[in-house]
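User: Run a structure prediction on this.
Assistant: Running it now.
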Amino acid sequence: MFQRVLQAVREKGIPVEVYMKLILKCPRVPLDALQLVFDHCQSENKKESFDGLGALRDIISQKQALKKRCSKAILVFSVHNKKHIRDASIQLLIGTLYEENPDLQEDVKIFALAMLNTLLEPSKPDEELAHDVGIAALDDATSGTE
């Protein structure tokens, strides 16, 4: 059932607000649904990006099981090569998530330090660095906590 809804969302361009209501009501969110939110976050369209990031914020506050995964995604988006995505992600992190989620504060610090360390040997695009270095550092620091 959910797969058919996702297919309709993709094909018909249903606004993120509509399927976000469905995602937030689901007891278990399929990874395909979460990927659709991530895709919105990375859209060329600024409104879609902002809506997607807002959806991640809502998932973080309402879906404890997805909190770490969505937080990591926002951290990766904070070094995105598209300025509007990077700026909105950073604003979301410092404006809302950092203060409201003390457990996220340590992840932000680990990610930031890992990204700073890459300045010594820059060799990959920002997004690839964020995933390989920053997320690996987070995974090492939080192994066994998810």
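DSSP finds eight helices and no strands in the chain.
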